[in-house]
Amino acid sequence: ECKKVDMSVLEISGIIMSRVNAYQQGVGYQMLGNVVTIGLAFFPFLHRLFREKSLDQLKSISAEEILTLFCGAPPVTPIIILSIINFFERLCLTWMFFFMMCVAERTYKQRFLFAKLFSHITSARKARKYEIPHFRLKKVENIKIWLSLRSFLKRRGPQRSVDVVVSSVFLLTLSIAFICCAQVLRGHKTFLNDAYNWEFLIWETALLLFLLRLASLGSETNKKYSNVSILLTEQINLYLKMEKKPNKKEQLTLVNNVLKLSTKLLKELDTPFRLYGLTMNPLIYNITRVVILSAVSGVISDLLGFNIRLWKIKS
């Protein structure tokens, strides 16, 4: 049953926030972080094990040999203690790092849900489906509430702290990519012979998976908030209402003009999704683009056998 009630921006946003808080988010990326954490913690031991022992030798390996491979040296008491401390240190620090990435992913997911429910407010069918308030932009007061609600929801949750974490991880990913490219250029045939190169590849793969997820959520959130088709639809409805109710033409014309100004305002204010720390600083952006793309160009040119450039300096 639909009822007509007077609600403020805080009341509407409270209902939307309660719907978002009731949503059960998945634990897929949290499990991915845990798997990568355990893999990186055991990586030095596993690298020594599979490098020094064949599959046939693994069947008859003794506990003393396993302890020697775990320590990387003869298993005396000080070395065993140092190896255990090093193992737990790697485990805890890596888990903390991916825990922050999971928090950032959940925050971005929450932002996307806010934007998704906000975009359904003017649709009666979708508003009924998600049990949120519904109103049409047929009055100036409704447009004012719609813009205020949009601004209010965009600022919910942690903003700067999460964006700084994501931008720092993005710069770390670019740095690892540059190091890997330099190692490949130095000798691509011997690239996988070193343990640290394997570890770099594991880190790069895991970080890229998280960054692709965050970039996807961020771009989808921006699309929801900057979707001017909602305002265009409301303008068409106003024109149709003018034909049915000529006596209210002056009032509807005023609302239509406000909708046009709102459309222009959203186009001026909204920007494409971008990672906070990198694109805000033009110097860092240009240095990163030149250095990273130069390294990638060199790797591709070395592997393919002909020169290729992935960037171009514009004057």
Automatic annotation (TrEMBL):
<feature type="transmembrane region" description="Helical">
    <location>
        <begin position="164"/>
        <end position="185"/>
    </location>
</feature>
<keyword id="KW-0812">Transmembrane</keyword>
<feature type="transmembrane region" description="Helical">
    <location>
        <begin position="66"/>
        <end position="85"/>
    </location>
</feature>
<feature type="transmembrane region" description="Helical">
    <location>
        <begin position="197"/>
        <end position="215"/>
    </location>
</feature>
<keyword id="KW-0371">Homeobox</keyword>
<dbReference type="InterPro" id="IPR039775">
    <property type="entry name" value="PHTF1/2"/>
</dbReference>
<protein>
    <submittedName>
        <fullName>Putative homeodomain transcription factor 1-like protein</fullName>
    </submittedName>
</protein>
<keyword id="KW-1133">Transmembrane helix</keyword>
<feature type="transmembrane region" description="Helical">
    <location>
        <begin position="27"/>
        <end position="46"/>
    </location>
</feature>
<keyword id="KW-0472">Membrane</keyword>
<keyword id="KW-0238">DNA-binding</keyword>
<dbReference type="GO" id="GO:0003677">
    <property type="term" value="F:DNA binding"/>
</dbReference>
<dbReference type="GO" id="GO:0005783">
    <property type="term" value="C:endoplasmic reticulum"/>
</dbReference>
